[in-house]
C-alpha cells in the first residue's frame, strides 16, 4: 500500500518534498507526490471557505474513475470546513481512502504571526499523517502527543509529536500485516 499526495495549486510552493518525506517516515509507507489533477467543488460564498466533504466527494470520483488503489491525500491552500463547524485542518473518508488537509490555518500568517516555514512543514506533516492514519483505520488517540490525537486548536496540533504513540503504532502494524497477508 502506498500514499499518493496531490499538491493543489494554492498549497505552499516548495514544501511538497519535505512534507511527503516526513509523512512517509511517520507512517513507514512510501509516498508519491504530484501536482493535483483534481478540480473540486464546494465553495461556500457566505463563508469564503470550501466544504471539505464536497472536496472528498470529488477525490472519491477521481479515485473510482482512475481505479486508484493508493491512499489519496489532497493538500490545498484553500480554507476548509465541515458542516456544523467553523473550520477544520483536515478531513478523511476512510471508506474511500481519501483525505484533504488545508494549509490555510496551519500558516502562522493566518493568525497574524511571522511566517515560519519549518513550523508550516511540521504542521502539514502532522495533520497529513493524522488524516492518513484514519485511512489506515486508526481512531483518535487520547495521548495528546500522538499523531492521532484530535486537535481542535493550533496549539493542540503543535503539542503533537511527529510520531504515533506505541499503542497506535502497534495497531497500525497489526493492520499492515493483515493487509499484506
Explain this structure.
There is one protein chain. Helix 1 crosses helix 3 (117-135). The chain has 181 residues and is α/β, with parallel strands linked by helices. The protein is globular. The chain is 36% helix and 18% strand. It is built from five helices and eight strands. A five-stranded mixed β-sheet has the order 2-1-5-8-7, sandwiched between helices. The chain has a single domain, classed as Collagenase (Catalytic Domain) (3-Layer(aba) Sandwich), CATH 3.40.390.10. The model has no long low-confidence stretch (mean pLDDT 94).
Give a quick summary of the entry.
The protein has 5 helices and 8 strands.
How many discrete structural domains?
Answer: 1
* CATH class wording: Alpha Beta
Give the second-level CATH assignment, the architecture.
3-Layer(aba) Sandwich
Helix count equals 5
E-strand count: 8
Strand content: 15-25%
SS class: alpha/beta
Topology readout:
Layout: E1 3-7, H1 16-27, E2 31-35, E3 43-44, E4 49-51, H2 52-65, E5 71-76, E6 80-81, E7 90-93, E8 98-102, H3 117-135, H4 154-159, H5 166-180
Parallel strand pairs: 1-2, 1-5, 4-6, 5-8
Antiparallel strand pairs: 3-4, 7-8
Helix pairs in contact: 1-3
Keywords, separated by commas or semicolons:
about 180 residues; 3-stranded mixed β-sheet; 8 strands; about 35% helix; globular
Amino acid at each position: 500500500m502506498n500514499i499518493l499526495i496531490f499538491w493543489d495549486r494554492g498549497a505552499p510552493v516548495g514544501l511538497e518534498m519535505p512534507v511527503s518525506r516526513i509523512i512517509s517516515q511517520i507512517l513507514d509507507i512510501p509516498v508519491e507526490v504530484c501536482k493535483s489533477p483534481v478540480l473540486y467543488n464546494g465553495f461556500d460564498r457566505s463563508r469564503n471557505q470550501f466544504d471539505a466533504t464536497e472536496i472528498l466527494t470529488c477525490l472519491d470520483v477521481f479515485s473510482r474513475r482512475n481505479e486508484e488503489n493508493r491512499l489519496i491525500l489532497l493538500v490545498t491552500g484553500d480554507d476548509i470546513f465541515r458542516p456544523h463547524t467553523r473550520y477544520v485542518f483536515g478531513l478523511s473518508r476512510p471508506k474511500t481512502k481519501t483525505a484533504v488537509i488545508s494549509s490555510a490555518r496551519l500558516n502562522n500568517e493566518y493568525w497574524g504571526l511571522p511566517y515560519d516555514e519549518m513550523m508550516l512543514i511540521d504542521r502539514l506533516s502532522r495533520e497529513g499523517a493524522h488524516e492518513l492514519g484514519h485511512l489506515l483505520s486508526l481512531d483518535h488517540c487520547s495521548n495528546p502527543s500522538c499523531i492521532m490525537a484530535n486537535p481542535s486548536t493550533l496549539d493542540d496540533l503543535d503539542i503533537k509529536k511527529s510520531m504515533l504513540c506505541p499503542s497506535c503504532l502497534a495497531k497500525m502494524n497489526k493492520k499492515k500485516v493483515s493487509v499484506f497477508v
